[in-house]
Hints:
The structure is a single chain. This protein is an all-alpha fold. It contains four helices and no strands. It has helices spanning 2-17, 19-32, 35-38, 43-63. Helix 1 (2-17) packs across helix 2 (19-32). 0% of the residues are buried. The model has no long low-confidence stretch (mean pLDDT 78). The chain crosses the membrane at residues 43-63. Keywords: Membrane, Transmembrane, Transmembrane helix. InterPro entries: DUF6366.
Amino acid sequence: MEHRDKQEKQQIEEYKKNPTINMADSMNRSVSGDLGTLTRGSILTRIITTLVIIGGLIVFLLLK
Length: 64
């Protein structure tokens, strides 16, 4: 947890130094998504996320 907090603080400092990085990072995340945010939250959120991902893979494989 401390490592993640340290990374977030470093990222905030980078955004302050160069504000255009924030826009570029936001655009990249909107295209590829931030998988780290899917694992944050309660256990119920994690279970639902896992079920959705597994369900999506099963549907993808069955339609192929």
